[in-house]
C-alpha cells in the first residue's frame, strides 16, 4: 500500500487502520520538517536563506493541513503565504539587503530572551491545546470538510467575525497607504 | 490520458499501476504539448511572420529541430558562477518546474481522465502557479549578477501585480458554475442552457467575455511573454533571471516557461470554452447509444488539445506582434485597469446570479 493510496483514502473519508498509521507517520514527517526548517531559519547567517527556510516551514504546515483533511485551508496557505506573503518578503529583502554568503549582523544579544519567550509561548499553547482537546478523538469515518461546507459556515455561523476581519484588513490597508504616501 | 480508474476497468489494474501510468502521463501531458507549440509557433509561425523559413535542416521541414536543441543543451557544460549561492542556484529551476507539474495535476481531459480531481480544483491551480515566482526570485538572487537580480525583481513585481486580475477573472466563472471543481465547471458548461436553448451548452466565454479577456492578458503577463517581458528584456538585462544559466538548467527554465503556457491555455479552455466537452447537439448525434462518458475519455484529450492550440496561437501571435510595455505602464495597466474591471465583472456576475 503506497502513501498515495492512504492519502486517497484520507480524502475519501474511508480511513483504514493501516491508513491511519501511515497518515500519522506522514503527519510527523511533515511536522519534523517544519520544526527543523524553523530552527534553521532562526540560526542561519543569511537573510535570504532564512526566508527560504520559512518557505519550507509554511509548505510543511500546508502538508499537515492536507493530512488533516482541510484541503481548502491547505490551498489557501499555499496561495496566501507562499504565493503572496513570501514572494513580497523575498522581494523586499532582495531589494534592500541581500548579501550572498554570511551576514554577521543577523545575530542579536537578546537572543536568549527571545528563545525564552518562544519556549514560554510554546508551553502555554501546547498546555491549552492539550487541556482543551487532549482526550478527544475524531471518528475514523468522519468526512473531510468540503469547500462548500467551509463557505456555508463562514457566511452563516461565522459571518460576524468574518465581516469584522474584513473591516480590520481594510483599515490596515488604508493605514498602509497613508503611511506610504509621500505628501 | 485515458484514465484507468473507471468502474469498468478498475478491477484489472492495481493502484500502483494506475499511479505509475498517471506519472508517465504527467510527463506526456507536460512535454508533448510544449514540444508541439514550440515547434509549430516558436520555430515555424514566427519565421513565416518574419518572411523566413525557420529551421529546415533537421528532419522534414525541420521537425526534428527540437531533438537537436535537446541534444545541444544536454551536452553543454553546467556552469555555476564563482560567487553564486550554489545550492539555491541549482534548486531554482526545479522549483519552477515543480510549479508546472503541480499545475497539470488538476486539468481534466475527460470524465475520468484526470490526474487528481480536487474539490478545490481551480483554486489549487491558481495557488501553485504562483510558486514559480519563488523559483524565479531564487534564480535571480543566487546568480550573483546584477542583471539576474534586476530581472528577478522585475518578474516578482510583475507577477504579484498580474496574479490578482488572474484570480479575480476566474471568480466570475466560479460564481456562474457554483463550484471550484474543474469537472464541475466543465459540467456546468455542457449542461448549461442559453435562455432554454441547450444545443451548444453554455460556454462561459459568452457570458464571461470580460473575464476571458482579462484572464488571457494576465496569463500573458504571468508567462513574462511579450508585451510583458520586462523581466527578461534582452536589450536591457541580457536574459534577466536566466542570464547565468546554461545547458540543462536553462533547458528546464525553457520547458517550464512553454509548458506553463500550454497548461494555462488548457485552464482557459476548461474555464471558458467548455473543457473536454463537445457541444451537446454533436454529442447527441454521435453517441445515441449512451456511451458518451466512455468515448469522451478518448475524444476529450483531442478536444482539449484543439482548444489549447487555438489559445496558444493567440498567446504567440500577441508575443510576436506587439512592442514591449514600459515598467510603469505595465504596473498601471494591472492596478488601474485590469483589477477594477475584474472587480466590476465579479459584482455584475454575482448580481445577475442572484437575480436570474
Distance between the termini of chain B: 38 Å
The CATH homologous superfamily name of the largest domain in chain A equals NADH-ubiquinone/plastoquinone oxidoreductase chain 6, subunit NuoJ
| Gyration radius of chain A, in Å | 20 Å
State the CATH architecture of the largest domain in chain A. Up-down Bundle
Q: What integer value in Å does the Rg of chain B equal?
A: 21 Å
Low-pLDDT parts of chain A are none
> What portion of residues of chain A is helical?
over 70%
What's the total number of strands of chain A? 0
Number of strands of chain B: 0
State the assembly state of the protein chains: heterodimer
Number of helices, where a helix is a run of at least 4 consecutive DSSP H or I residues of chain B: 14
Strand content of chain A: under 5%
Find the CATH topology of the largest domain in chain A.
Four Helix Bundle (Hemerythrin (Met), subunit A)
Order of helices and strands of chain A: HHHHHHH
**Tertiary shape of chain B:** globular
Largest sheet of chain B: none
List keywords for this structure.
heterodimer, A: 183 residues, mainly alpha, Four Helix Bundle (Hemerythrin (Met), subunit A), 2 domains, 75% helix, B: 356 residues, 14 helices, disordered N terminus
Amino acid at each position: 500500500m503506497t502513501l498515495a493510496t492512504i492519502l486517497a483514502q484520507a480524502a475519501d473519508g474511508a480511513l483504514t487502520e493501516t491508513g491511519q498509521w501511515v497518515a500519522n507517520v506522514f503527519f510527523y514527517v511533515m511536522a519534523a520538517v517544519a520544526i527543523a526548517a524553523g530552527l534553521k531559519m532562526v540560526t542561519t547567517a543569511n537573510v535570504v536563506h532564512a526566508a527560504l527556510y520559512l518557505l519550507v516551514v509554511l509548505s510543511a504546515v500546508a502538508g499537515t493541513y492536507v493530512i488533516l483533511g482541510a484541503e481548502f485551508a491547505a490551498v489557501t496557505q499555499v496561495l496566501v503565504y507562499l504565493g503572496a506573503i513570501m514572494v513580497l518578503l523575498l522581494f523586499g529583502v532582495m531589494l534592500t539587503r541581500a548579501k550572498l554568503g554570511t551576514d554577521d549582523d543577523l545575530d542579536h544579544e537578546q537572543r536568549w530572551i527571545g528563545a525564552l519567550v518562544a519556549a514560554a509561548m510554546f508551553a502555554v499553547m501546547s498546555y491549552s491545546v492539550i487541556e482543551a482537546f487532549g482526550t478527544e478523538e475524531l471518528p475514523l469515518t468522519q468526512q473531510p470538510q468540503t469547500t462548500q461546507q467551509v463557505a456555508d459556515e463562514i457566511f452563516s455561523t461565522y459571518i460576524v467575525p468574518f465581516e469584522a476581519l474584513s473591516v480590520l484588513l481594510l483599515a490596515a490597508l488604508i493605514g498602509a497607504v497613508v503611511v506610504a504616501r509621500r505628501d | 490520458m485515458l484514465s484507468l480508474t473507471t468502474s469498468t476497468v478498475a478491477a484489472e489494474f492495481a493502484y500502483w499501476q494506475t499511479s505509475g501510468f498517471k506519472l508517465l502521463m504527467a510527463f506526456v501531458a507536460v512535454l508533448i504539448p510544449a514540444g508541439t507549440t514550440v515547434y509549430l509557433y516558436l520555430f515555424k509561425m514566427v519565421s513565416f511572420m518574419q518572411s523566413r523559413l525557420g529551421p529546415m535542416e533537421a528532419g522534414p521541414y525541420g521537425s526534428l529541430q527540437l531533438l537537436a536543441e535537446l541534444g545541444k543543451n544536454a551536452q553543454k557544460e553546467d556552469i555555476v558562477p564563482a560567487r553564486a549561492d550554489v545550492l539555491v542556484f541549482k534548486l531554482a529551476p526545479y522549483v519552477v518546474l515543480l510549479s508546472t507539474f503541480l499545475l497539470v495535476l488538476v486539468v481534466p481531459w475527460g470524465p475520468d481522465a484526470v490526474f487528481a480531481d480536487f474539490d478545490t480544483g481551480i483554486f489549487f491551480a491558481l495557488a501553485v502557479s504562483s510558486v514559480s515566482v519563488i523559483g524565479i526570485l531564487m534564480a535571480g538572487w543566487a546568480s550573483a549578477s546584477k542583471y539576474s537580480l534586476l530581472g528577478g525583481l522585475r518578474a516578482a513585481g510583475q507577477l504579484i501585480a498580474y496574479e490578482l486580475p488572474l484570480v479575480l477573472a476566474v471568480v466570475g466563472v466560479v460564481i456562474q458554475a457554483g463550484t471550484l471543481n474543474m469537472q464541475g465547471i466543465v459540467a456546468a458548461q455542457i449542461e448549461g442552457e442559453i435562455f432554454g436553448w441547450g444545443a451548444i451548452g453554455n460556454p462561459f466565454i459568452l457570458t464571461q467575455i470580460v473575464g476571458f479577456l482579462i484572464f488571457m492578458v494576465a496569463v500573458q503577463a504571468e508567462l513574462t511573454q511579450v508585451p510583458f517581458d520586462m523581466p527578461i528584456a534582452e536589450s536591457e538585462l541580457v536574459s534577466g533571471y536566466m542570464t547565468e544559466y546554461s545547458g540543462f538548467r536553462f533547458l528546464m527554465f525553457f520547458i517550464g516557461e512553454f509548458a506553463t503556457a500550454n497548461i494555462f491555455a488548457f485552464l482557459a479552455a476548461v474555464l471558458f470554452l467548455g473543457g473536454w466537452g463537445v457541444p451537446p447537439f454533436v454529442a447527441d448525434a454521435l453517441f445515441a447509444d449512451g456511451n458518451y462518458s466512455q468515448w469522451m475519455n478518448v475524444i476529450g484529450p483531442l478536444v482539449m488539445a484543439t482548444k489549447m492550440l487555438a489559445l496558444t496561437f493567440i498567446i504567440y501571435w500577441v508575443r510576436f506582434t506587439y512592442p514591449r510595455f514600459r515598467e510603469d505602464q505595465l504596473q498601471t495597466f494591472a492596478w488601474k485597469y485590469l483589477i477594477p474591471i475584474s472587480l466590476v465583472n465579479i459584482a455584475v456576475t454575482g448580481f445577475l446570479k442572484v437575480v436570474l
